[in-house]
């Protein structure tokens, strides 16, 4: 009798541990990402995730983390508190190529007057990509919005560049994928949890 209880108890622990490990990570494009992250002491959950495909080439995995689920672009942009998006490289790319692609996405989804408000931050942002000579497959870039600090970028956990203070700049980055002219129209609904 005791043996059966012990076996059930051990099986229960194994099941609980198995469930815990599956709940701790999601797979996007073959890369693993945490399903929750802490930014500025606040727990953020995956809002949505997908893979950026250019023509037929998978370029990167993208995961958007928010304090609470949002299913519209406006909801994401108005979200209070810290936020994060994580990019996992699925192929080698230079920092310059990545920076140019980001700038093209920002330009397509913001007007000149809007960009003029954070022109200095665009320069800092561009400089940060100069510090990434070659992005390798599996590299992870995180871009956090931290209230009272700004936009903070990191490559594989190491900060690159200086914080960029304007929330409108962070929102301009998000519009690359969530704006009216997203770089990948199939990725937008996935980030909004509709994919």
From TrEMBL:
- The protein's superkingdom reads Bacteria
Q: Which residue numbers delimit the Chalcone isomerase domain?
A: 26-193
Give the signal peptide, or none. Answer: 1-25
Keyword Signal carried by entry: yes
Which SUPFAM superfamilies did the record assign? Chalcone isomerase (SSF54626)
Q: Which UniProt keywords apply?
A: Signal
Asked whether the UniProt record includes Ligase among its keywords, one would answer: no
Q: Which organism is it from?
A: Roseateles saccharophilus
- Pfam families cross-referenced by the UniProt entry: Chalcone_3
* Name of the protein described by the UniProt record: Chalcone isomerase domain-containing protein
């Amino acid at each position: 009798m005791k043996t059966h209880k012990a076996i059930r108890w051990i099986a229960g622990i194994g099941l609980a541990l198995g469930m815990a490990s599956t709940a701790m990570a999601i797979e996007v494009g073959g890369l693993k990402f945490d399903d929750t992250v802490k930014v500025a002491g606040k727990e953020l959950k995956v809002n949505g995730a997908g893979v950026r495909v250019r023509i037929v080439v998978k370029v990167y995995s993208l995961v958007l983390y928010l304090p609470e689920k949002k299913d519209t672009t406006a909801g994401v942009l108005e979200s209070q508190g810290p936020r994060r998006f994580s990019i996992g490289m699925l192929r080698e790319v230079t920092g310059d190529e990545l920076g140019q692609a980001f700038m093209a996405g920002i330009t397509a989804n913001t007007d000149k007057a809007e960009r003029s408000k954070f022109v200095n931050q665009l320069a800092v942002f561009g400089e940060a990509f100069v510090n990434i000579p070659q992005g390798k497959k599996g590299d992870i870039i995180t871009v956090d919005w931290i209230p009272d600090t700004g936009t903070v970028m990191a490559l594989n956990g190491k900060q690159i560049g200086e914080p960029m203070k304007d929330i409108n700049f962070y929102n301009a980055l998000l519009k690359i994928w969530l704006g009216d002219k997203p770089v990948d129209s199939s990725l937008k609904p996935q980030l909004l949890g509709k994919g």
